Amino acid sequence: MEKMLIENHLIKDQLLQVMIDNEGSDMYITVWTYPGIKIGGEIIRIDDGLEKFSAEDSQNFALSIITDDQHKKLLNDKNLDFSFAHAGRRFRVNISFQMGHYMTVLRLLTLNIPNINDLGLTDIYKDVTKLWQGLILVTGPTGSWKTTTLAAMIDYVNTNYNKHIITIEDPIEYVHPHKKSIIEHKEIWKDVPNYEVALLGAMRQNPQVILFGEMRTREEIENALRLAETGHLVFSTLHTRSAYQTITRILDSFDAEDKNQIRMQLADSLVAVFSQRLLKINDGTGVKLAKEVLFKNGAIANLIRENDLHQIPSVLQMGSREGMQLLETDIIELIENGTISQEEGLKYSNNPKLIKESIL
Q: How far apart are CA 274 and CA 272, in angstroms?
């Protein structure tokens, strides 16, 4: 194990254990306030026996979980993403600066590799993993279980099929054991310099399945589409709110003269878009996943080719027999069965008017 810059921090282990014991989702360490842990969607201050963190306290906490090489990268980039293990659990971490002071945000990852059934996902999430090529996207805002859903789908492939799987992440969150498949994990900066180099390299490493954390640039989108066209099943994410916005975001990443070609590629290669939200449960005990599902059929492919993207929500609404649905379908059901409040549903909806008309 690599040596941390500060090995014996006075309260780091205790704070991490409080987070684990209470199944907190996130912890926030910053200056001039107490450490905060998010539990059930609410941030709880940890002030029992502690003083508010000073600039030295917040810096020392950060230095207690990073190595010298990581610190140099942080000072150069002013931002650092990584993951680490503690007490049998894995944490995803971001360290940055605010007003010149260290700020650390930790995410506690699920103890076990998530399961599609346990997450309450439908059979279509399993069905798409059977395909031998194409592009599968899980979208939504930060903290909407995109990585968790992808991990569950990769686990389903790993459990049921004899494949070669490569995951490319920044950082690695879920470490999958070899099951029926051979699975390799590559971390940005640690194993490969960036997504583009990793994706180009993956083409020469003969995987059948490739996961990479997020399509952020035009080059990454181009490489994902190329891999999906050349016999690979590709999984990735975008920070988009809906299936419609996902497709428009991809197309808007390209210049006008390139969009027609990209439309053709996307119409051929896209398999599915799963757009997700985490909604707070009424009793405050946790969260519930709501999802929008697009599964590409002939109608969707034609809308992409003809650039009639505004009709996508209508096709989703009418495509329930194929497993498609609007996000609002899930939200309405959660409101009507008392799981979430109407206010919570409206806050995360793409079409609040549809919800209001359906539940009145």
A: 7
Q: Which pair of structure tokens corresponds to residue 163? A: 């494949």
Tokens for 273, please give them: 């878009």
Who's near 8: CB < 8 A, 6+ residues apart?
Answer: none
Rounded-to-integer distance, Cα 131 and Cα 138, Å: 16
pLDDT at residue 1, rounded to an integer: 53
The pLDDT of 328-354, averaged and rounded, is 94
Question: Judging by DSSP bridges, how do beta strands 164-169 and 209-212 pair with one another?
Answer: parallel
334: three-class secondary structure by DSSP: helix
The strands making up 79-86's β-sheet, listed across from edge to edge, are 42-45, 36-39, 26-29, 101-108, 89-98, 79-86
The SS3 of residue 347 is helix
Confirm if 226 and 208 have CB atoms less than 8 A apart: no
- 216-248 confidence digits (pLDDT tens): 889 889 989 999 999 999 999 999 999 999 999
pLDDT digits (tens, 9 = 90+) for 41-57: 789 999 988 899 999 99
Omega within 30 of 0 (cis) for the link into 114: no
Question: SS3 of 107, please?
Answer: strand
Measured over the CA atoms of residue 186, residue 192, residue 195 and residue 199, the dihedral's sign is negative
Contact 43, 37 (CB under 8 A): yes
Enter the pTM of the model: 0.88
118/116 Cα distance (integer angstroms): 6
Q: Measuring CA to CA, how many Å separate 244 from each of 149, 253, 264?
A: 20, 15, 16
| Confidence (pLDDT) at 180 | 97
The CA distance from 247 to 225, in Å, is 13
Distance between CA atoms of residues 316 and 314, nearest Å:
5
